[in-house]
Amino acid sequence: MNPIWAVILPLLVIPFIQFFGEKRNNLREASIIVTGLLLFLVNESIYQAVINGELAVSGEFVMMPGLSLALSAEPLGVLFGLLASSLWVITTVYSIGYMRGHNEQHQTRFYTCFAIALSAVMAAAYADNLLTLFVAYEMLSLSTFPLVTHAGTDAARKAGRVYLGILLGGSIGLFLPAMVWVYAMTGTLDFVPGGIVNAEQFGPGLWVLLALFVFGIGKAAVMPFHRWLPAAMVAPTPVSALLHAVAVVKTGVFSLLKIVTYIFGVDTMLATGISEWLIVFPAATILIASIIAFSKTNLKARLAYSTISQLSYIVLAALLASSTAIVGGGLHILTHAFAKITLFFCAGAIMVAAHKKDIRELDGIGRQMPITMLAFFIGSLGIIGLPPVAGVWSKVMIAQGSLQSGEVWILAVLMLSTLLNIGYLLPISIRAFYFAPPNAADSEHAPKSEPAAESEHTSDAAQQADSATPATAGHSVIQEAPAASLWAIVMTATLSVLLFFYPQPVIELLEMIQWR
Amino acid sequence: MSFVASMYNYWIVIVLMMAGLYILITRHNLVKKMIGLSIFQTSIFYLYISMGKVAGGTAPILIDEAVQYSNPLPHVLILTAIVVGVATTAVGLALIVRIHESYGSIEEDEIRVQEAEDAQ
Amino acid sequence: MSLSEHLPALLVVIPLLAAPLCVLLRHPLYAWIVALASSSLTLLAAYQVLMQVRDGSVIRYTLGGWSAPTGIEYYIDSVNATVALVVALISTVVLVYTRAISQKQLVTDKHYLLYTAWMLCLCGLIGIVITGDAFNVFVFLEISSLSTYLLISLGTQRNALTAAFRYLVMGSIGASFILIGIGYLFAATGTLNMVDLAQRIPEVQESRTILVAFSFLTIGLMIKAAVFPLHAWLANAYHHAPVFVTAFLAGTATKVSLYVMLRFFFSIFGADYSFAQMFLTSVLLPAAMAGYLLMSLVAVYQTDLRRMLAYSSIAQIGYIVAAISMVSVTGLTAAMVHIVNHALIKTALFMSVGCMMYRMGHAHIKSFDHLIRSMPFTVMAFIVSGLSLIGVPLTAGFISKFTLINGALDRGWWLVAASVLVSSLLATVYITRAAEVMVFNRNRVGHPQPSGMNEAPVSMLVPMWLLIGLSVYTGINGTETLAVAEQAAMQLLGGFE
Q1: What is the CATH number of the domain that holds B14?
Q2: What is the mean pLDDT of residues C16-34?
C-alpha cells in the first residue's frame, strides 16, 4: 500500500464534514469514524508490508533540485501511524459524547482542523526525508492552532499565541537552520539507515546541530521549551487527549527518534558522545516537570506536566542512542499514548458528568463514576510503570539502554521520577474511591445545563476560578459520562492492559529498524 | 593653483551641486525645494556638457574649416536629461499646486502639523 | 525579420503606445481595456522572450538596426527576462483587480489618467530591465519614476500628495546620482553600452573617475531600491498611494532597481571590482542586516496594515541585498528567487488589504474584528500569503528562505543566517497579530460590522487568488524558478558574453 493514501485519506473526509455540517452531525461524525477505520486499515496493510520486508514507498515529488517530498514506511513510522489512526477513531467516538455534552461551538471547524492535523501526523510518520518531516511538522502546528484557540476568548487567544510562538519560533528559529545546515554540509536530507552526518565534517559543530534539533523540535517539550503544552490545555479535552497527549507531542519525540536514527546514526552518536551533556536537559525535565505536576491542582494541568515529563523519557531514549533505548523509546510512544489518553479521557468525562476539574473536588467521585475512575487508575499505573499495564516494558527497556550506554545516573533519575509519578497520580484514584465526597449531605447533582467554564481559562486561571466555586454535588448516585465517551475510555484502558501481555509484536516491529 | 584653474568647470559643477542640495535640504518652502532640485540637476548637465568639450574643437557641424569636433554625444544625452528635468519640475510644481489647494500652505512645517492632525 | 525577433522592442513599445491611446479615449472602461490588453500582450511577449533565452543564450537587439556602440541595444539574458516577466505579470494581474476598486476610490474623470500613468510606468520599468545601454537606464528610470509620482498622488487622502512630493524629491536625487555615475563612467571609458563598459572598465579601473562613478551609482541605486538606511520614502509612498497602485509598485518598482544593482555590480563593474576591491560587502551587508531586523521590528508596531506591509517590504529588500552581498552562485540564486517570490507574495498581500479597504474603507488592524465572517476569502488570502512571507514550507517564501540560509551557511555567515531567522520570527509576530484579530476577535462595541457575507467583488478576488495560487505552486514545485534563478546567477557572475 502506498503511504500517500494515509496522508490523503484524512483530507478526503473534509468535504463530507463541511457538507454535513452542524445540522446533520450524526452523519458528519459517522463519516469521520468510517474514514478513521479506513485509515487504520491502510496503516495495517502498510504494517503487513513492512513485516514481510516489502517496500512501501510513495513517488518522489521534487520541490527544489536536490530536495524532494517523499514518503516511505519504516518500523518507527508504521508504529506511529497505526497508533495515531487507531486513536483517531476512538477519540472521535469520545468527542461525540464530549462535544455535545459540553455544547461546544464551531464543531465543524473543530473536526475539519482535526482531520488536517491527522493528515499532517500521517505525513510525519511516513516522511522519507527531513524536508517532508519538517513540512508535516509545520502543517501540524498551523492546523492545531485553531483547535487551541477554539473558544475564541481572550485567554484562549493568549494561550494560542504562546502555542504558536514556541512551536513556530522553535521550528523556524532552530529546526529550519539545523535542516539547512545538514543540507549545506551533506547535500541531502534523506533518512538513511546509519545516518548521513559525517562526524569529522562537522567537528565540534555536531553537538550544536543536535542541540538545535532537540530544542528546535518544540513539540518534544524539552524544558525550557515546554510552556506551550500547559497553555494548550485550554483546548477542548478531545484535543488535549489526542493531540496534546498523542499526536502532536509524539510527532515531536518521534521526529527526534527518526533524526537520531536516520540522520545522525546510532553509531555516530555513540562514537562521538555528542549527547553526553545534552542528556541533562531531558533528565532535568523529567524531574522538574514531575515536581511541578505535584503543585498543580487542576487535573488537566497536572496531566500536562506529567506529559512533559514522560515525553522526556523518549527524548532521553533518543539521546542515549543505543538500539535498546531507541526501541524502548518507540515502545514508550505507544504505551504512554494509551495510558495518557485514558487519563485525559477520564478528565474530560469528569468534566462533562460532574463539572469538576480540580483535584481537591474529586474525593469520592469513584462512587459516582466507578468505570471512569477505574480506567483512571489503570492509566495511572501505565504512567508509573507498574504491571499489569504496558508502561513497565518501555521503562525497563529505556533503563537497560541507559546501562548499555554507561549512564548509570540516568537509572537514578528514572527511579526518582517513578516515585514522583506515584506521588502525584495514585492519590487521585485512592481519594476518589476511599474518601468521602465533600458536602456528602448535598446529594443533588449539578444541573447539566450549568455552563462549563473549562475552555474559558488557561489551566492556571482555571485553577483559581475553580477553587473559588464551592463543590456543588455529592457522588452517591452513579452518573457516568455519555456512553460514547465511556466506551472510548474503556477501549483505551483495555488496550493499555493488553499491551502489557502482548508487547511482542510491537517490539518485533521496532527491532526491524535498520541501524546501519 | 593650476589644479583649480584648469578644472574650473568641475568646480562650478561642485559649487552648484552643493548649493542645490543645500537648498533642498534646508528650505521648508516646497517651491524653494524645487528650485534647489533644479539647480542640482542643472549642475549635472554642466558636468556632462563640459566633459564633451574637446580642446580646440568646434561645434559638431559639418563645415569645411573644422579640424576637430567636440564630442556631440554628451550634448545629445543632456538634451534628454533636460527634458527629464523639465518634466520633473513640472510634476513637482503641479503637486505643489495640489498641496496648496488641500493644505492651504506650501510650508513644510505647517503641512506637517496638519498631517499630524490627520493621523489622529 | 519575423515578429518574434522584434519582441524585445515590442515589450517597450506596446505599453508606450497604449499610454497616449488611453488619453485619447478618455473613457474609464475603454482606457482600462486598452491598458489591460497591452499589459497582457507585454506579458505574452515577456514570456516568449524568457523562453528564447531559457537555454542560456542572449538576445542582443539593436534598435532601428543601429548596431552598438553607435545605437542603443537591448541586452536580454535570463536575468532580465525573468524580471521583465515578473513586472508584466504583476502589472496585468493587478490591472484586472484595479477596475473594481478604482471605481470606488477614484473619481471617474481621473481613470484614464490612472491607466495612462500606469502604462508609462510599465513601459519605464520594462525598459530599465531590458536595455543594454547605461544612459537608457536613466531615461527609463525617469519615465517610470515620473509616472509613479502621478500614481501615488492619486491617493484618496491629501497626504498622498505630500508623500508623492517627498518621493519625487528623493527619487530625483537618486536618479541624479545615477546620472552622475553614468556620466563619470562615460568620461572614463567613452561608451555607454553596457557590454562595452564591462570590457573597458578593467583597463581604467584604478582611476579615481571610476571610483567616483561607482560610489554615486551605489548610493543612487540604494535610494531607488529603498535599501536601509535610504528607505524613508517608501513607507509613506506605499501607505498613502491608492492601494492598487501600491500592489503594483510593491511587486515591481524596487525589484527593478535591485535588478539594476545586480547588473551594474556584477555584469558591468564585475564582481571582482565591486566586492573584492571596493569592499561592497562591508557596505551592503550591515545595511541589509540592520534593515531587515529593524524594519521587521518597526512593522510589528504599525497600526495600519499598509504601513506594516510597507516596512515589511523594506525588510524583505534587506534579504535580497544580503543575498547579493554573498557574491556566490547560491547567494545570487537566492536573490533572484526572492525577487520573484517576494513580488508575488507582497503584491498578493497588498491586494488582500485592498479587498478589505474596498469594504471597510480603511486598513486599521484594530477594527478588523472577526473579519473572516464577512470576508472569508480575503482573510484566507491574507493568511496564506502571510504564511508565505514568513516562509512556512509549501509556500514560495520557504524556497526563498531555504536558499538564502543555504547561501549564508555556504559562506560560513552564521550571524546572517541567525538574523534572517530572527527577522522571520518577527514576521510571524506581525502577521499573526493581524490574522488573529481578523479570525478570532469577537466584534467589539464601537466597531459595527456588516452582518453576513460581504466579500469583495469576484473581479478582485480572482486575480488575487491567481497570484496566491502561483506563489503556492512555486512553493511546492520550486524546481523551475530555481533553475531559472540559478542560470541567471551564473550569467551574472560570468559577466557579459
Answers
A1: 1.10.287.3510
A2: 92
